[in-house]
Amino acid sequence: MSVSAPNPRSTPARQQLADSLRRLRAERNWSQEELAARCELDRSFVAHVERGARNISLDNVEKLANAFGVGIADLFLRRDPKGEAGTIRA
């Protein structure tokens, strides 16, 4: 899996969301197209969110969380190398 460089204009929360989406999608072996279809979002929108380039609405965050079967808050938790969750520090 190719990982994009973080967007320098991205906020910590936006970048954490991007990191979580890429990780969860990779864990499930889903393409961006598959994730987008499950959320009823455009693939290019998903790609922008995964790069931290879009300011996403709460409605769309909820769609993404539901597609992965996780809570909204789970998308904003940092994972250490052991997979343990922590909170974002701005």
Describe this structure in words.
The structure is a single chain. With 90 residues, this protein is mostly helical. It has one domain: lambda repressor-like DNA-binding domains (434 Repressor (Amino-terminal Domain)), CATH 1.10.260.40. Helices cover 48% and strands 4% of the residues. It is built from 4 helices and 2 strands. A two-stranded antiparallel sheet has the order 1-2. A hairpin with a 5-residue loop joins strand 1 (78-79) and strand 2. Helix 2 crosses helix 3 (43-50). The model has no long low-confidence stretch (mean pLDDT 86). It comes from Paraburkholderia phymatum (strain DSM 17167 / CIP 108236 / LMG 21445 / STM815) (Burkholderia phymatum). GO terms for molecular function: DNA binding; DNA-binding transcription factor activity. Keywords: DNA-binding, Transcription, Transcription regulation.
Layout of helices and strands:
Elements: H1 12-27, H2 32-39, H3 43-50, H4 58-68, E1 78-79, E2 85-86
Short synopsis of the structure:
The protein has 90 residues and is mainly alpha-helical. It is built from 4 helices and 2 strands, in the order ααααββ.
CATH architecture assignment name:
Orthogonal Bundle
Uncertain stretches of 5 or more adjacent residues: none
Instruction: Report the span from N to C terminus.
Output: 28 Å
Whole-number tally of structural domains: 1
What share of the residues does DSSP label as strand, in percent? under 5%
CATH topology, anyone? Answer: 434 Repressor (Amino-terminal Domain)
Residue share in helix? 40-55%
Derived from helix and strand composition plus strand pairing, the structural class reads mainly alpha
Q: Which homologous superfamily in CATH is the superfamily?
A: lambda repressor-like DNA-binding domains
